[in-house]
Amino acid sequence: MFPASTDSCRRTARADGVTMMIDPGLPTAAFIDVVASHGDFIDLVKFGWGTALVTRDLDRKVAVLRDAHIGCSFGGTLFEYFLWHDRLDDYLRLVDRTGTTHIEVSNGTIPLDQHEKAEYVRRMSRVRPVLAEVGYKDADRSDRFAPGQWVEAIREDLDAGARLVITETRESGRSGIAAADGSLRDDVLRAVLDAVDPARLMFEAPTKELQVEVINAVGPDANLGNIAAPDVLGLATLRRGLRADTLLSLASPDPTPAPWEALHPTAV
Fold first, then answer.
1. Cα 170 to Cα 136: distance, rounded to the nearest angstrom
2. 3-state DSSP call for residue 19?
3. Could you give the CA distance from residue 11 to residue 31 in angstroms, rounded to a whole number?
4. pLDDT per residue over 126-148, tens digit each?
5. How sure is the predictor about 106, in pLDDT bands with cuts at 50, 70 and 90?
6. What radius of gyration do the chain's Cα atoms show?
7. Element at 232 (helix H, strand E)
8. Nearest Cα to 81, choosing from 48, 37, 114?
9. Alpha-carbon span 147 to 161, nearest angstrom
10. In degrees, to the nearest 5, what angle opens at C-alpha 16 toward C-alphas 166 and 233?
11. Is 32 in contact with 40 (CB distance < 8 Å)?
12. Which domains does the chain have, with CATH numbers?
């Protein structure tokens, strides 16, 4: 369950982990349809990278999420963009004006030291619940980021007040905690899970392969991010063993409520 103090995030009767959908710039009507059709399986929406600045209907999209009690944030790249251009006050005004419920703080692109990033996590947590991202978008920098450094960075961000720490993979699923071939870096995953409560982590998993790997390693209640809109329902089936990839690996689900009963409470 998403932390109880985040009142803006609706939780249904399901016992899934947090699902964060990424909006890469969906047409407004398509966005509204996704929320109407699959909103029960979405807890957060991230307006990817810097799309918020070129989305004409941003206010309408945020209003749709507000009505559905789904949280939202801008991509960490937008935070980095404003910080790099020394316009953090403008960023905070944008957060305030639009009413986004969370702030993502990252250093995946700009040359921002981890300790400095943690200070921004601390500052931003006074404004909104913070989702702190660890890991780099550049594959070479990611390869040089050792398992122990991942653990130290995650712990530092949590100590600074982050509500959740996101493990970077980009939308391609081939950097950060993922290797160039699209699989999870097993050494990093083992180190992180040995040191940090997975309930405090959100694993970016934009591909089905990564979603399966995380679910098998962490469990069906793993917090998963960067889920594409067409994949929201597919992820819900993976969490329940309703797809071949997880059917044999997951224990029998709690029958109360069963998926059909939760979605069709009046069915006989």
1. 9
2. strand
3. 20
4. 999 999 999 998 878 888 999 99
5. very high
6. 18
7. helix 232-239
8. 48
9. 22
10. 90
11. no
12. 19-263 (3.20.20.70)
How far is residue 43's CA from residue 35's CA, in Å, rounded to a whole number? 10
**Backbone torsions φ then ψ of 241, nearest 5 degrees:** 70, 25
Classify residue 184 by its DSSP letter.
B
Picking from 24, 45, 20, the residue whose alpha carbon sits closest to that of residue 225 is 20
pTM score: 0.89
Task: Name, in order, each residue with C-beta under 8 angstroms of 100's C-beta and a sequence gap of 6 or more.
Answer: 62, 72, 73, 74, 128
For residues 104-132, give the mean pLDDT: 97
The mean predicted confidence, pLDDT, of the chain is 90
- Distance in angstroms (rounded) separating the CA atoms of residues 244 and 263: 22
Output the six-digit token pair for 101: 């419920």
What's the CA angle centered on 195, arms 172 and 211, to 5 degrees?
30
DSSP tally for the chain: helices H, then strands E: 12, 8
pLDDT tens per residue across span 177-208? 999 899 999 999 999 999 999 999 999 999 99
pLDDT score at 207: 96
First to last CA, the chain: 29
Q: What is the pLDDT of residue 171?
A: 80
Cβ atoms < 10 Å from Cβ of 111 = 7
